Amino acid sequence: MARIVVVTSGKGGVGKTTTSASFSAGLAMRGHKTVVIDFDVGLRNLDLIMGCERRVVYDFVNVIQGEATLNQALIRDKQLENLFILPASQTRDKDALTKEGVEKALKELGEMGFEFIVCDSPAGIETGALMASYFADDALVVTNPEVSSVRDSDRILGILAAKSRRAEKGDEPIKEFLLLTRYNAKRVAEGEMLSLKDIEDILRIKLLGVIPESESVLQASNQGIPAIHLRESEVALAYQDAISRYLGEEKPMRYIEYAKPGLFKRLFGGK
User: pLDDT category, 94, cuts 50, 70, 90?
Assistant: First the structure.
């Protein structure tokens, strides 16, 4: 049975789509048949980050409206055979997503043998975001170490607890995980960003990973590859660690402590 994972946040620009791309790719790299769906109808940028924008013929809305089958709309990833992308529409209205249509598509994907369905949610609480969250089994809450981002994520946690299918049916609640992105240990140490402890105290959900602030994320996006493919980069290793923890493995947290430069580095231009 497919596990539905929503990647969500209250605030835009925190790295949700970057995370959706790397998280789904990471699951596929571990041997799991995975599909990632772009729920951001009208904008659509998951296909850009996944490097398949020129291969889009049909989209998620076409499937929901009965204008195309899933087999026609799904795009196989160029690097991973067991990873597929279902792009959003750039021309339709967000109301084109219906609860019945989304449920039918998710059920069909499960019947096609997908183990994980990763839903890249738009920011906030609009139709696409609520639809992506409604059917979730797990929620990956993406947050920056900033007050506004953490506050908005706390609001999203309230919606996940009250407005999901699991909440309506009285089933076991959605499993919530925190992914902290754009974390800069030096700025945290200098009091310019919220600390890990501050964020955990506010949100009180399991920390899945800390993704360090890095220019390599932008480089990966411009190249059309998920950041997890940037071999041996801190960002790629951090996403790999987060995947391992999600799958139940124990991994120590990296990149959360700031090591002050020694005298030699200070004398010769180290930061």
Answer: low
Q: Measuring CA to CA, which residue among 206, 218, 184 is closest to residue 250? A: 206
Q: Is 90 exceeded by the pLDDT of residue 199? A: yes
At 89 the pLDDT is 86
* Strands of 75-76's sheet in order across: 75-76, 83-86, 34-38, 116-120, 3-8, 138-143, 175-183, 206-212
CA–CA–CA angle 54, 55, 59 (5° rounding): 110
Q: 178 and 208 in contact (C-beta within 8 Å)?
A: yes
CB 60 within 8 A of CB 87: yes
Q: Which helix H or strand E contains 28, and what residues bound it? A: helix 16-29
Give the pLDDT confidence of 200-217 residue by residue, as tens digits: 999 999 999 999 999 888
φ/ψ (deg, to 5) at 31: 100, 5
| Long-range contacts (CB closer than 8 Å, 24 or more residues apart) made by 164-169 | 164/133, 164/134, 164/135, 164/136, 165/134, 165/135, 166/136, 166/137
Alpha-carbon distance of 62 to 4, in angstroms, equals 21
CA distance to 160, 175, 178, 250, 267, per residue, from 9 (Å): 11, 15, 10, 25, 42
Q: How many whole angstroms separate alpha carbon 206 and alpha carbon 183? A: 17
pLDDT band per the 50, 70, 90 thresholds, residue 53 = very high
Whether residue 158 contacts residue 164, with contact meaning beta carbons closer than 8 Å, is answered with: no
Look up residue 217 and give its two tokens: 């994320």
Using the 8-state DSSP alphabet, how is residue 238 labeled? Answer: H
